[in-house]
Design a protein that fits this description.
cytochrome-c oxidase, five-stranded mixed sheet, about 20% strand, alpha+beta, about 300 residues, oxidoreductase activity, Immunoglobulin-like, 10 strands
Amino acid sequence: MVGKPSRAARSRARRSIGLLGIGALLPLVLSGCSLEEAFHLGWPRTQPTDQSEMMMDLWIGAVIAALAVGAIVWGLTFWCVVRYKKKDDSLPVQTKYNLPAEISFTGIPFVMIAVLFFYTVVVQDEVNRMEENPDTTITVTAFKWNWEFGYDREDAAGEQITTTGNSNYIPIVVVPNDSRVEFFQTSPDVIHSFWVPDLLFKRDVIPGEGQENAWQADFHTEGTFVGRCAELCGAYHSMMNFEMRVVSPDEFEAYLDNRAEGMSSPEALEAIGHEPYAVTTVPFDTRPDSGQPSGDEGN
């Protein structure tokens, strides 16, 4: 007959449970995340495109499935530890050729993989889908070490309206909300990568004739989002930032009208009631004997 656990054994059990709880909370506490951020599992809280929302849903679904599998596996493991704890020297019942268990262990993982594969293909196809007539097209030119954004409009001189960044100016690409936007990418020198973290998407910009590539996104949320180069492209790769400003369709048209009349990008943004310069990132000062650049340039 097995007696009750001793007081020392109960104390050790409570201490173990307490340590396990502390260990489970440590990642959240040390990361400095709020509870809301924790439930986003490290992903941005705002997904400004239909495609980014689909990718977020796929990720959350996959994580929930993984947590469910983990809970079942750990639960069965601890149940076996408790249920089949050695009580004496006699051998336990030996079981083999358990066909239902073997079918379950093979079939259930296969079904899970098939479901995840199906939804992954669905989301991937939507992210890569191209429509023949997007609402607007923006040309993205990545160069060492900055960005130029061109719009499908011309100014009074008949030249394409563009915004070009430099060492003192973070370029802002203005995008219309409630629109399908095509980004046509090109590079004159090395491989770069167009990355807006909140879009949950990035695409390499590959140099060379015939290497241009394009992708499209459906925007549904106005806002300001930081952009980066996600491909190591040289000495000043870390300084190759930009900002994406998603505005209403009317504001977008007004912005292009202002640019066509000769305004610079900061002037045109200010005229439609937006911050004239980037607010999500600032130029890097590479001159040790001077102050932070004021960001008073830009076209």
